[in-house]
Fold this sequence. Notes:
four-stranded antiparallel beta sheet; alpha+beta
Amino acid sequence: MFFLILIGLGLALQQSTCAQPANQLQLSQPGKEAPPPRVLTLQEAMELARINSPQLASANITALLAHEDRVQAKAALLPNANWFNQFIYTQPNGTPSGVFVANDGPHVYNNWAIVHGDIFAPGKRAEFQRATVAEAVARAKADIAGRGLIATVVQNYYGLVSAQRKYANAQQSLREAVQFNDITQKQEQGGEVAHSDVVKAQIQLAQRQRDAQEAQLAIEKARIGFAVILFPDFRRDYSVVDDLQTTPPLPSFEQIQGLAGKNNPDVRAAQGTVRQETLGITIARSAYLPTLSFDYFLGIDANQYALYNRSHLNNLGSVAQAQMTIPLWTWGATRSKVRQAELHLQQAKTDLSLTQRQLLANLNSFYQEAETARSQLASLKSSLDLSTESLRLTLLRYTAGEVTVLEVVDAQTTLVQARNAYDDGVVRYRLALANLQTLTGAF
């Protein structure tokens, strides 16, 4: 028995040994290479955001719903046709009409084509006009959502670009700190500086390492936050193009003001709301007026479902009728609706006035922001160049023993601040242009 057990264990070990190379071969097979990260331009990012933005999709659907309301309101103004089929059974009692005198026989067949139209219905016409204006308001609000989305995309896009630039600045500062640390160690070995200079350089190096880590974290956080706007699923395998090397021109304030007066969707929406409420008064007042409509019937209304009755007379015929409805007394309900519509119009005019004032305030504020940001770019670039030259000269003087370690550290810190300040200034100008374009459209 013991011998059989040993044989069984040997066979099992042999099978496992034989199976192992196959597994190793399977694991060692190269898989498909991961696709390279997608590189997005600003225009590509905007297109992705338009496709995947739920807010913009909701605004567009609202505009489409308003369009369908207009179609239905227009259809209500036109004559409509229906086909009516009916069979009425009346209990017989020996008379031609049966139990119910209103019927003209125990069996009544109705088979009609009915055409109905309104000859005079001012309320329906005003409702159609109001639906047309409501569609324009909905499209203006969709435009507002679209421009707001563009501003959000620009903010996130250049936020990621800024994070990438600051990471590059942190890497550059880290290399400079490493270089300075090497210089202090060599100076100490030559007996030219005290050990305190090495300690200060090491402290500066540790700080630059932490700055690089924070900059890397800022990139990842900006990429993750931007991905929520761009993609329908969670992903991080993308980057953006740094196009901050070029500086777009800023039009004159007169041009900006003219574009805002023509293309501002907030004002269009507020003006459309005023027109809506004006038509609301017309709708409410139409309840004071009479309405005139007509109906035309063509078909059979007979005791036999046939073209001719038993006397060979024609069952197929037509009838036309017109009716006028005159309102007499509604217990003040119509008057209340008119007053309510007038209050809505008053509120809409107040909102329009506020929107126009807010547009002028934002226009001046955003333009001054853009103008200031543009005017500071040259100064920030000059400060960056001077800081770079200052660090270079300070290191030379430190190597020659003319300055202290504190001056070198101060020059390094100044250069770090100048680099980040310049990048912040360029991004600030792009964001200011994006804010202006939410009021004026693209320019």
